[in-house]
Specification:
heterodimer; A: alpha/beta; FAD/NAD(P)-binding domain; 5-stranded parallel sheet; 29% helix; 19% strand; B: alpha/beta
């Protein structure tokens, strides 16, 4: 193999698995270290710069970082990254003084943002400090979008939403709440310099099966029902409730039902339990609240008596594997099952819907009736109209909406300044040695052996009585510290300087995970199985030196490196060094990322 | 030195041996030697060898004297027996322990100061008595703990870090071991584990005194130009006579060298040393030729490494003393005090 090039931002970024997996590329190990130091304000601001809603995400994020966490490959479970984020949010002091100041003067550009959810708010945050005049429209009476309307209060208290949405809206912008945009053409005619569409995926899927119309009074669309609960329009549900669907919305529906009078609440899914889309921890939480999850059942008919819902008939399914090895859920032919209920909540998916966008204004839609949006610039086919969040590429989650928002804000800024929007600003990257003394590093390199800590929960008897009582209590600072110490500090990179190496083997001898091998060079497929510990995880790179004095090369498999720094401690010549890699994603406003 | 313990996390694919131990289980406490010390590599090679031979840790006795080398038993096999003797007295204590309990595997670890100066006599007598042991000298040619004075194995004419020239002749422990009757003699280099690990394995399986002189550069005080025990010098002047694979009867491996280039030696316990010849005409079963070969190469400034001599039909001290099969420490009053009647009979036979 050629000597590994660590030029440019990507090589070392990939080593920081959590940051690489995060759509917003939040510098996770950096803020975890700050939490361990008790610097909650700083940890919060590192998050805020990158993901805008640390308190919200610390409770609700889909956490793509955690399955990626390197610790999960050597220990039983990854670091509880998401819940550590909440530790920073819960324990910070007043950070309002650290928020970017409102712009003193307008820069003369007016931007309309459709929807007041996470995508639009991210765009607004990035643009407001630069003097953009922002107008946010939302049909709901309050800002926050799905954060406020769809996530139940027992998972996310209103105060957290108010605080974090407030940091943005306080920067100075016009909120036109309760005002639905019915025509994009009309909006464009108002002369905005750019329009951002962050209207989400607001339409819950319906089921067109017998009895649907007749029993409509007790059959509800999940996200609409959750929104009505959030805004206080619905306060009760029947004793027996069936929730259809296996995603996170279904989990929110069933748990909310338990708090509004549902005594026998069941989740019934078409697929198998393992194939459900809901995050494993959300399934666990539902089961913990005595909600059975029945699988392999497709709803066939709503049974009613003169319009009064009595239950649902289900067809039984099983999984078959076709000749191409693909698994499919099909009817098994077993007798149907009847489940009695008073109410049904349907959480079988949600879709985009753009009836308010005219099809003759130069904005193209694809065969699925989704707008054509550039995946890098987030611009539609009509210059000056941008999309982000669920409105851009269909339902994802908050952290994706934030990532889209940052990119769209850059595009909007460039568009308004007459610059080429396809010319994207690179991230800021620095790499600095962490050596403080002969065997002393500026980070804590002693690896903690602790298992992942569980987040304490509110007593079930209390929490099931109050839809607003937060279930998770969060880590206290003591457990927060211990959990933070489980982080391997993967952003502190092992950096190898070929000319200094004397091939004494000290690094290979000390490495606890046999990551380093000095070996005759070969191509990657040849090298991987020949290493001391064969490098079988192909998603992880090999770090290869140039040819050394004996003609061999140093090969390090990044896969399970603990970043303990012992290679550098035992290296007599400083050929190994531990260097902290900082990657700051570019945002439209330099003020927000200071 | 490193202050933190080596993390307990290991590579998830790390395999255990038949005893259920991984290589990591044979480690000891973290080394307090200087970063880059050759001794740490030798410790690592010993750990690898013991792991591969699947020796239960409690069946090993690690013995050492004083010096950097003699600290190293602490850094390996934390669950084994150990004894840290006064300077240069490891061979005697090892001999005593071996006499008391011949069932353990004896691993003597020493340095050039400990074995070639203060303990030279001890070294000589333990070898000539044929004690069943593996005796490894971690030879760096310098007194590292006292900041770099020449040791007794420093080559004449070599230069200290401060620039002084050594005017004393160096002691060649390999030559000495051959003359004293060691039945397994090898030399290796800490920077070449591919060679060192099989040598340690073969030595551990060997019955009788197995001696390995292992050159181990002192990164602090003897790794400069003018040193004959630096990484660079040893790599440039290394003349390996053979490469070896050790084949243990219980897990045979396939070795595919060209026929005619490989010589096999079957040791006392049935283990087979498969020697791949690198130097033409070198015969590791000929003690006299080995001595001549070593002298000739030494005159050229070359460092001969590999398995230099082995006597597969070796005997040890217990054979010479004709001791009972049961280890002496397991003999109880019943065996040791036969009683008045036996004494009377014995006395009567002598009257």
């Amino acid at each position: 193999m050629e000597r590994t090039s660590t030029e440019g931002p990507d090589y070392f970024h990939k080593v920081v698995d959590c940051q690489w997996a995060c759509p917003a590329h939040t510098p996770v190990p950096e803020y975890i270290r700050l939490i361990a130091e008790g610097r909650y304000d700083d940890a919060y601001m590192v998050n805020w710069k990158s993901n805008v809603f640390p308190g919200v995400l610390g409770r609700t994020c889909d956490r793509p970082c955690e399955p990626a966490c390197r610790r999960g490959r050597v220990d039983e479970e990854p670091v509880a990254i998401c819940r550590l984020k909440r530790v920073a949010a819960d324990n910070k002091d007043d950070v309002s003084g650290r928020m970017p100041p409102s712009a003193a003067n307008s820069n003369g550009k007016r931007i309309a943002l459709v929807g007041a959810g996470p995508a639009s708010l991210t765009v607004a945050r990035d643009l407001a400090p630069m003097g953009y005049e922002l107008v946010i429209y939302d049909s709901d009476p309050r800002s926050g979008g799905m954060i406020r309307s769809q996530i139940p209060r027992f998972r996310l208290p209103e105060s957290v939403i108010d605080e974090e949405v407030g940091y943005i809206t306080d920067m100075g912008m016009e909120l036109r709440l309760g005002q639905r945009v019915d025509s994009l053409k009309g909006l464009l005619d108002e002369g905005y310099d750019a329009v951002f569409v962050g209207s989400g995926a607001p339409r819950g899927r319906d089921l067109d099966i017998p009895g649907r119309k007749e029993a409509a009074a007790n059959i509800h669309i999940g996200i609409d029902w959750l929104s009505s609960v959030s805004f206080g329009h619905i306060e009760k549900i029947g004793k027996k409730v069936i929730v259809l669907g296996g995603g996170n919305t279904a989990m929110d529906c069933c748990r909310t039902s338990r708090r509004l009078g549902g005594e026998e609440v069941k989740v019934i899914v078409r697929s198998g339990f393992a194939e459900m889309k809901a995050s494993p921890w959300e399934k666990e939480d539902a089961i913990h609240e005595d909600i059975p999850i029945l699988n392999f059942l497709s709803p066939k008919e709503f049974v009613h008596e003169n319009g009064k819902l009595k239950g649902v008939i289900f067809e039984k399914n099983h999984t078959v594997t076709d000749d191409k090895g693909r698994k499919k859920v099909v009817a098994s032919g077993e007798p149907d099952e009847f489940h009695e209920c008073d109410d049904v909540l349907m959480a079988v998916g949600q879709e985009n819907s753009f009836p308010w966008i005219e099809r003759d204004i130069g904005l193209e839609f694809d065969q699925w009736d989704m707008p054509r949006v550039d995946e890098i610039t987030f611009q539609s086919t009509r210059p000056g109209v941008f999309f982000g969040g669920d409105a851009a590429f269909g339902p994802k989650n908050i952290i994706w909406a934030v990532a889209h928002g940052h990119q769209a804000a850059i595009s909007i800024h460039k568009h308004c300044q007459g610059q080429d929007i396809s010319d994207r600003p690179p991230p800021m990257v620095t790499l600095a040695s962490q050596k403080m003394g002969i065997h002393e590093w500026s980070y804590d390199n002693d690896i903690s052996n602790e298992d992942r800590f569980r987040v304490p929960h509110l007593d079930k008897a209390i929490s099931l009585k109050d839809v607003k009582a937060e279930v998770e209590l969060g880590f206290d600072t003591r457990i927060g510290y211990k959990e933070a110490q489980r982080c391997f500090n993967c952003d502190v990179q092992t950096v190898f300087a070929d000319p200094l190496c004397i091939e004494c083997d000290a690094c290979t001898d000390i490495c606890p995970v046999d990551a380093i091998t000095f070996i005759e060079n070969g191509d990657e497929a040849d090298l991987r199985p020949r290493l001391t510990a064969p490098a079988l995880n192909l998603t992880q790179d090999l770090y290869v030196s140039g040819s050394l004095k004996t003609g061999r090369v140093m090969v390090k498999d990044e896969d399970v490196c603990l970043h303990c720094g012992l290679c550098a401690e035992r290296c007599p010549t400083g050929a190994w060094d531990m260097q902290r890699f900082i990657l700051d994603m570019a945002t439209a406003s330099p003020i927000c990322t200071k | 030195m490193t202050y933190i313990a080596k993390p307990k996390f290991a590579h998830p694919n790390l395999k255990p041996n038949s005893l259920g131990y991984t290589r990591r289980d044979y480690e000891g406490s973290v080394s307090t030697l200087c970063a880059g010390c050759g001794h740490d590599s030798i410790s690592s090679a010993i750990i690898q060898a013991v792991f591969e031979l699947e020796i239960p840790p409690h069946k090993i006795a690690k013995m050492s004297g004083i010096g950097c080398s003699s600290k190293t038993p602490d850094y390996m096999m934390g669950a084994s027996h150990g004894f840290n003797t006064v300077h240069g007295r490891m061979p005697s204590v090892l001999t005593g322990a071996n006499l008391a309990n011949k069932d353990l595997v004896y691993l003597g670890i020493s340095g050039d100061g400990d074995s070639a100066s203060i303990g030279l006599g001890q070294f000589a007598h333990s070898v000539r008595r044929g004690v069943n042991m593996t005796y490894i000298v971690e030879n760096n040619g310098v007194y590292g703990l006292t900041k770099g004075q020449f040791s007794a194995t420093s080559d004449k004419g070599s230069k200290s870090k401060g620039g002084e020239i050594n005017h004393d002749a160096g002691i060649d422990l390999v030559g000495l071991a051959l003359q004293l009757g060691a039945t397994f003699v090898a030399r290796s280099f800490s920077g070449d584990k591919a060679q060192l690990v099989p040598l340690v394995k073969a030595a551990l399986l060997h019955k009788g005194p197995a001696f390995i002189d292992c050159i181990s550069p002192c990164v602090q005080f003897n790794n400069h130009n003018g040193s004959t025990k630096s990484y660079d010098y040893v790599r440039e002047h290394n003349e390996a006579v053979n490469r070896m694979d050790v084949i243990v009867p219980r897990n045979p491996i396939h070795v595919d060298y060209e026929p005619g280039e490989t010589k096999t030696v079957t040791q006392h316990d049935g283990s087979i040393l498969s020697l791949h010849k690198l130097a033409e005409h070198y015969d590791p079963s000929d003690r006299v030729a080995a001595l001549a070969f070593l002298s000739a190469k030494a005159a050229l400034g070359e460092i001969v490494t590999g398995l230099l001599f082995v006597d597969p039909a070796s005997q040890d001290l217990h054979d010479g003393l004709n001791t009972v099969d049961t280890p002496l420490n397991e003999l109880h009053d019943k065996e040791l005090i036969p009683g008045a009647k036996v004494l009377e009979a014995l006395n009567a036979s002598l009257r």
